[in-house]
Design goal:
Blueprint: E1 3-7, E2 10-14, E3 19-21, E4 31-36, E5 39-44, H1 49-57, H2 60-66, E6 73-75, E7 85-89, H3 103-121, E8 125-127, E9 135-138, E10 141-144, E11 150-152
Length: 153
């Protein structure tokens, strides 16, 4: 099956071998993380596109990024087969995972998730899956990277 990237210029086919889906991104009904041309993207399925478009347009995503709670994420003009919307994420250069963290890092990750939940609740939102696997440390600062885990309360 070929993957196609659509842009304002038209349809630019991308060979399937050029798109690599992230091995930890397979069970979210809203979309999937992938790499293309060395960059990190997240494809969002058509039934979730209006929800996430709204979060971008009403400033929720920007506010969370500005507060350092969510990884830098931007809308693109791209789409890939099966994913109506594609967002670009800033890559964390040296990811580490919860089983590698010391106690202080686990605490910082938990506090980041709690701060994020507090901000989301003010917008009538919550997280579907608030666990440490959706947090990465950008140098010494924890940041939430599970951008598709948001939903209405």
């Amino acid at each position: 099956m070929a993957h196609y990237i659509h842009s304002a210029r038209g349809i630019d086919p991308i060979p399937e071998r050029a798109v690599t889906f992230h091995p930890h991104s397979f069970c979210d009904a809203a979309g999937r993380l992938f790499r293309w041309n060395g960059q990190l993207y997240r494809g969002i399925r058509p039934d979730w596109t209006p929800f996430f478009t709204g979060l971008f347009h009403n400033g929720v995503i920007r506010r969370l990024i500005d507060q350092g709670l969510l990884i830098e994420t931007e809308l693109t003009s791209l789409a890939i087969d099966g994913y109506e919307m594609v967002v670009h994420h800033r890559d964390v250069p040296f990811p580490s995972y919860p089983e590698e963290w010391c106690t202080a890092m686990l605490k910082d990750a938990a506090l980041t998730i709690l701060k994020l939940l507090t901000e989301l609740a003010q917008c009538g939102l919550t997280l579907k899956d608030a666990h440490p696997w959706n947090v990465l440390f950008d140098a010494s600062k924890p940041v939430y990277v599970g951008g598709l885990q948001m939903e209405w309360l």
